[in-house]
Amino acid sequence: MGRRKLVVGNWKMNGMRAHLDELEAIGRVAAAHPAVEVGLCLPATLIMAGSERRGAAFIGAQNCHMDISGAYTGSLSAEMLCEAGASWVITGHSERREARGETNEDIAAKSAAAHRVGMKVILCVGETIEVRDAGRAEEVVSDQLLASLPEGAAADWLAVAYEPIWAIGTGRIPTMEAVASMHAALRAALASRIGADEAAKVRILYGGSMNGDNAADLMALADVDGGLVGGASLSAAKFAPIIEAAD
Ligand code: PEP
C-alpha cells in the first residue's frame, strides 16, 4: 500500500520572524527528501511570511474556527488561514481539547470547515495516562476518532495523528507494540466508517516525543505513516533526522 510518509512539525506558540531561517532550512531538507511530504504548522502570525520562505515544505495552521466569518473575537476561519498561505490545519490537538474544552463535535465541524475551503486536515486523537493504565486506550481512542471524524472524510484530505497525551513533550513514548496495535485499531475503526479501501489509504501519524533516535523504529511499523512533531520540529538540526528516517 503506497502511502507517502507525512512528517509535520507543530510549532505551537513558538516562533518569531527571526525563526524563519530555521523554517527555510527545513524547507531545504524537505527538498532533499521528495519521497516524504513535509510541513510546518505555524503560529498564525508567521503563516504569511513563512509561506514565502517554505521551500519544499507546506505550511499549515494549528487550529481554525468552524464558521466562515462572524462575531468571534480573536478567532480565525479556515478561509482566512488558507488565504494567508496555510494548506493544512491541525484539528483536535489535545492541548486544545483539554485547555479549550473542544469537543469531538467541534473538531468534526472544524475539520469539515477546513475541507470546504480546500485545506487538508490532521485530526488528532489520544488517550490520558489513566486510560492507558486502565487498559482501555484502543477502545477510547477509536471511539474518539469516530466521534470527531467529519462527514465525507477521505484519504486525499484527511490524515489522523495518534498522540498519547502523556507522551507529548515528556520524552516518554509507548512501546513499539503498543503503537503498532493502536495504529491497526485506528485503521480498523476508519474502515468501519469509510470502508476498508479508503481506510487503507489514510495516513496515520504518530506524535508524542518523536525524535531522531526513535523516529526510524516508529516509522518502520506497518501502520505508522509519519509523525506529528512538536519540540523537535523547532530546529532544522533536530527535525532533519526525523525527515530522513521517513525516507
Ligand atoms: C505535539 O504536541 O503535537 C507533539 C507531538 O509534541 P512533542 O513532539 O514535543 O511531544
UniProtKB/TrEMBL annotation:
CDD domains to which the protein is assigned, alphabetical: TIM
EC top class named in words: isomerase
The protein's Enzyme Commission number: 5.3.1.1
Active site feature: H93 (electrophile), E163 (proton acceptor)
Residues spanning the signal sequence: none
Keywords: Cytoplasm, Gluconeogenesis, Glycolysis, Isomerase
PROSITE patterns noted in UniProt: TIM_1, TIM_2
Localization: Cytoplasm
Residues noted as binding substrate in the record, renumbered to the chain: N10, W11, K12, G169, S209, G230, G231
Protein family: Belongs to the triosephosphate isomerase family.
HAMAP family associated with the record: TIM_B
Subunit structure and binding partners: Homodimer.
Protein task: Involved in the gluconeogenesis. Catalyzes stereospecifically the conversion of dihydroxyacetone phosphate (DHAP) to D-glyceraldehyde-3-phosphate (G3P).
Name of the protein in question: Triosephosphate isomerase
Organism of this sequence: Sphingobium amiense
Name of the encoding gene: tpiA
